[in-house]
């Protein structure tokens, strides 16, 4: 080997160490750069020089500069991030609903229930000389209770709408990230020239990896790197990005239940995205399962309160009987059977008693009104028109149906009053004939406006069969009374079940979120131990490279002295 060959060896070494030091410096400079993946220099022996029968090495060259990354661990971390993101969103949804319900505070729904039924019970303790104040208080507590139920439903719907808006925003983010990853795929493929084992386009790959992590936080995706260096990203078996190609996703809005429901589809094919994790999945589950599930339970509770309370209430009367009364609810077709006429609460087969009183003589004439919804008598099922005809045939009473499908009863003389009793069909509550609560559920529950104000408090139906307070006792007992419609549970039981289920599901969701968060942190630590920049390790590499560089410089000095000596001969 010649002295010039020795200089070539030293030159190769100096160049390799300079590149190594530059990579170390770049790693140190990006130690705090989010998402930066540590780069490493891969050295290889320089091509040999053959002299005679000998193969003499020419030092070292840099083979490539690659990122120090475990792709399998990276995929695991992205999957864990998607699972944690979905769990966090659902956990937050449960916490928001718990705060909305406000249990264990002075303004929770259970407190409103207790005050309402307590106010009804207290009407029996009112003095005979002041029957209006206690009745008015009970009506006010009922109005407050109905208002609180509506408020909770409205705020829950606002929470649902917020999730719907966030889903729409996230879809735009997915499309933007897919576009950016597609562009990085093209740039990386061009930079690396697609040759296997070549240097990585480190900065470009780091930026693409950050975009990929952001995408994985939104949707669960399967990522595979192609030989060219581009990525293939699939969602539910359908590709979203394939190297230099991509597809867009969009929201398909269906409105089959009266509220807009959006779902993700591929824009070009309309095929639905089947997500199992990620922020969008968490938002969708929070909207459709957590919030809507709670609203369904709240609506069921409101329905039970409206119908069951009205069933008892409608059989009572106020301080005086009625001279005119119109149903709160309307039917779609007066000639349709009452259980198929579009009423929220369908009546059943049975009967009720209509009592007509003469205020001058005090004579009360009872008449039984039949509601046949089984067709057992051979006649068609009872319609609203049939019911109006039966009522109109009662002496002293006229009955008619207006254009809106509502039934009106009226006394034919000024000394005639009427009341109801012993309704086994529930038709009075279904039609809203002498009812307290109005509406069809939690979104529109209200109270009969004819009872509002202390001047109308005397109409509050607390009497039954002419006995003051008898209906009040029945109404107050309703809160804890087992109900057939609730399989033996009471209204309080139904409410407690709703609260308990929400609390239990919230606890489970919190535990799942905590567990997935801890798992993600563990994977993140493992990933950083491999791909993150460790200043101590970089310092050791820097010292090693420096010593090699110094030794090589000393080697060049010796070779130079030998050349000088040779020239001087």
TrEMBL record:
<dbReference type="InterPro" id="IPR010930">
    <property type="entry name" value="Flg_bb/hook_C_dom"/>
</dbReference>
<protein>
    <recommendedName>
        <fullName>Flagellar hook-associated protein 1</fullName>
    </recommendedName>
</protein>
<dbReference type="GO" id="GO:0005198">
    <property type="term" value="F:structural molecule activity"/>
</dbReference>
<keyword id="KW-0964">Secreted</keyword>
<dbReference type="InterPro" id="IPR001444">
    <property type="entry name" value="Flag_bb_rod_N"/>
</dbReference>
<dbReference type="Pfam" id="PF06429">
    <property type="entry name" value="Flg_bbr_C"/>
</dbReference>
<keyword id="KW-0975">Bacterial flagellum</keyword>
<dbReference type="InterPro" id="IPR002371">
    <property type="entry name" value="FlgK"/>
</dbReference>
<dbReference type="InterPro" id="IPR019776">
    <property type="entry name" value="Flagellar_basal_body_rod_CS"/>
</dbReference>
<dbReference type="GO" id="GO:0044780">
    <property type="term" value="P:bacterial-type flagellum assembly"/>
</dbReference>
<dbReference type="Pfam" id="PF22638">
    <property type="entry name" value="FlgK_D1"/>
</dbReference>
<feature type="domain" description="Flagellar basal-body/hook protein C-terminal">
    <location>
        <begin position="526"/>
        <end position="567"/>
    </location>
</feature>
<dbReference type="InterPro" id="IPR053927">
    <property type="entry name" value="FlgK_helical"/>
</dbReference>
<dbReference type="Pfam" id="PF00460">
    <property type="entry name" value="Flg_bb_rod"/>
</dbReference>
<keyword id="KW-0282">Flagellum</keyword>
<dbReference type="GO" id="GO:0005576">
    <property type="term" value="C:extracellular region"/>
</dbReference>
<keyword id="KW-0966">Cell projection</keyword>
<comment type="similarity">
    <text>Belongs to the flagella basal body rod proteins family.</text>
</comment>
<feature type="domain" description="Flagellar basal body rod protein N-terminal">
    <location>
        <begin position="7"/>
        <end position="36"/>
    </location>
</feature>
<feature type="domain" description="Flagellar hook-associated protein FlgK helical">
    <location>
        <begin position="95"/>
        <end position="321"/>
    </location>
</feature>
<dbReference type="GO" id="GO:0009424">
    <property type="term" value="C:bacterial-type flagellum hook"/>
</dbReference>
<keyword id="KW-0969">Cilium</keyword>
């Amino acid at each position: 080997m010649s002295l010039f060959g020795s200089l070539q060896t030293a030159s190769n070494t100096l160049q390799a160490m300079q590149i190594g030091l530059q990579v170390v410096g770049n790693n140190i400079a990006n130690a705090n750069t989010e998402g930066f993946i540590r780069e490493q220099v891969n050295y290889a022996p320089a091509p040999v020089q053959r002299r005679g029968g000998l193969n003499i090495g020419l030092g070292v060259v840099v083979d490539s500069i690659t990122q120090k990354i475990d792709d399998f661990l990276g995929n695991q971390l992205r999957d864990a991030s998607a699972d944690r993101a979905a769990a966090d969103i659902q956990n937050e949804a449960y916490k928001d609903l718990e705060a909305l319900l406000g249990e264990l505070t002075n303004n929770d729904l259970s407190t409103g229930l207790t005050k309402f039924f307590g106010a009804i019970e207290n009407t029996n303790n009112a003095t005979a000389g002041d029957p209006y104040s206690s009745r008015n208080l009970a009506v006010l507590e009922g109005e407050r209770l109905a208002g609180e139920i509506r408020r909770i439903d409205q705020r829950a719907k606002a929470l649902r709408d917020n999730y719907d808006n966030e889903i729409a925003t996230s879809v735009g983010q997915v499309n933007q990230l897919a576009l950016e990853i597609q562009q990085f795929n093209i740039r990386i493929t061009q930079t690396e020239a697609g040759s296997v084992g070549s240097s990585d386009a480190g900065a470009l790959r780091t930026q693409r990896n950050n975009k990929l992590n952001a995408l994985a936080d939104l949707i669960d995706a399967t990522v595979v790197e192609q030989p060219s260096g581009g990525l293939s990203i699939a969602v539910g078996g359908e590709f979203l990005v394939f190297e230099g190609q991509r597809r867009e996703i969009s929201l398909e809005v269906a409105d089959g239940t009266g509220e807009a429901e959006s779902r993700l589809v591929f824009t070009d094919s309309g095929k639905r995205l089947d997500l199992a994790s990620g922020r969008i999945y968490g938002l969708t589950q929070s909207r459709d399962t957590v919030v809507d599930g709670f609203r369904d339970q709240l609506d069921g509770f409101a329905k039970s309160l409206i119908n069951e309370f009205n069933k008892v209430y409608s059989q009572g009367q106020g301080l005086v009987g009625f001279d005119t009364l119109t149903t709160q609810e309307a039917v779609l077709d007066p000639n349709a059977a009452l259980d198929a006429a579009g009423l929220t609460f369908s009546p059943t087969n049975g009967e009720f008693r209509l009592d007509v009183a003469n205020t001058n003589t005090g004579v009360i004439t009872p008449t039984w009104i039949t509601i046949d919804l089984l067709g057992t008598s051979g006649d068609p099922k009872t319609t609203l028109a049939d019911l109006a005809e039966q009522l109109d045939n009662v002496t002293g009473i006229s009955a008619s149906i207006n254009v809106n499908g509502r039934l009106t009863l009226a006394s034919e003389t000024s000394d005639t009053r009427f009341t109801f009793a012993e309704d086994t069909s529930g038709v009075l509550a279904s039609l809203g004939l002498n009812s307290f609560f109005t509406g069809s559920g939690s979104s529109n529950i209200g109270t009969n406006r004819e009872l509002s104000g202390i001047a109308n408090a005397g109409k509050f139906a607390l009497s039954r069969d002419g006995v003051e307070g008898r209906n009040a006792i029945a109404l107050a007992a309703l809160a804890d009374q087992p109900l057939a419609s609730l399989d033996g549970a009471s209204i309080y039981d139904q409410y407690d079940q709703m609260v308990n289920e929400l609390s239990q599901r919230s606890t489970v969701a919190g535990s799942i979120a905590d567990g997935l968060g801890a798992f993600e942190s563990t994977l993140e630590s493992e990933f950083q131990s491999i791909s993150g920049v460790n200043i101590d390790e970089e310092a050791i590499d820097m010292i090693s490279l420096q010593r090699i560089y110094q030794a090589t410089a000393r080697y060049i000095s010796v070779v130079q002295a030998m050349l000088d000596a040779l020239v001087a001969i």
